[in-house]
Structures are given as C-alpha cells and as structure tokens.
Design goal:
Layout: E1 5-9, H1 20-30, H2 34-43, H3 45-52, H4 59-72, H5 79-94, H6 100-111, E2 115-123, H7 124-134, E3 137-141, E4 143-146, E5 149-154, H8 162-169, E6 173-179, H9 185-190, E7 193-197, H10 201-210, E8 213-215
Parallel strand pairs: 1-2, 1-6, 2-3, 6-7, 7-8
Antiparallel strand pairs: 4-5
Helix pairs in contact: 1-2, 1-4, 1-5, 5-7
Length: about 220
Amino acid sequence: MAEPEIVAFDLEGTLTAGVAWEGMRDYLKAHGEEDKYRRFFRRNLLPVLAFRFGLLRDERAFKERWILGVLRLFAGYTPERFDEMAAWVVSHTFWPQRRVAVVEELEEHRANGRRVIIVSGMFEPILQQFAGMLQVESMGTAVEFVDGRFTGEIIGQLNVGQAKVIRLQQVGRLVAAYGDTVRDIPMLELAETAVAIHPDPKLRQAAEQHNWRILTE
C-alpha cells in the first residue's frame, strides 16, 4: 500500500499574519483580566526594550520565553475556559488575518485527496480551533491540565524545527510543505515541494539556494 500523501502547513506567518500572543493579550483585555498582562509586561520591561532596540543576542529565545510567559497568564483555567479563549483568539486574530492565497492552496490540496496537517509550535487547543475551521488535522504543542485546571505549562517542548520533522516522518510521505521562518527549513527540506511564505531573510536565502517557490501574495 502506498504511503499517504501529506501536505504540511505552518500556522503563524504562513496561514495567517495574526500573532498568537497579541490575540491572547487582547482576550485578557476583553474579559476583564488586563491586569494580568500589565503585571507580566512590567516584570519583563527590560528584555522587551532590549528586543525592540535589537540588543538581544538570541531574539528567537526571547520570543519563545515571551509566548510561554503569556501562556502562563491562563493558569487555573478549566479546559472549557481555555477552549473558549482559543476560539476567541482564532476568530478575532488568526482568521481575520488569514493569508487567503495560502488558505486557497490548502483547500486545493484537501480537495485533491491529500492529507493536510497544520504543523506548528502553536498551543494545541488554539491550533485545533483554526484547523477545525478548515477541516484539516493539526500537530501542535500540548498544554498541561492537572485536576481539571491548566497548570500554565506545556507538555514536552515546543513543536518547532526538527520536532516537526520527527512527527511528520511518522505519518507518511511529505509531498509539500509551507513555512515562513528559518525554523521551518528542516520541514521544507523534507518535502518534495517546498514553499516559503513571506519568508524571513534566512529562509529567503535558503529558498533561493534550493529554488523553492516563494509566495508573498
């Protein structure tokens, strides 16, 4: 039996221009919990300023710490409340800023019978909400619930970089992949056809070297 044909899409920056932490912040503001974010921002003011002025050695590490810090603001949420937040972020941030041309290609792959998976470092409850709107599968970062409450932590590591490759290798033949940053290069190299979406400088350089398609709408 032939391996299933898999098409993988990253989420942030690829399928949508929306930014998760901004949507999560806006959810807190819209639901009377803005003080949580304000206190978090004040605690992290110095690294924020260093990031804005380009003074950090590892901006990627800062971004990961930031989104994980924002995630912890939802500690104590029930699964139902967390799903409510996830649906709000998708409907107010991700879906309105979806990249229409990329979504159309996703729908074309699905219509052609390929197994489409959104593979992202995004937290699984949020990713599932977005994937559900497109009727496709998702592979994201799991979040931890203990005794019916969110602990504020993820399970394992963020589903980025090589972690995406390991998971995709377990499900079938990757015929196409779409990504937007240097961290998507391992996934794109695995695919028979790679597409760079609004690529960052390092991914653009790699795309040009490999003759990958570049889509900027």
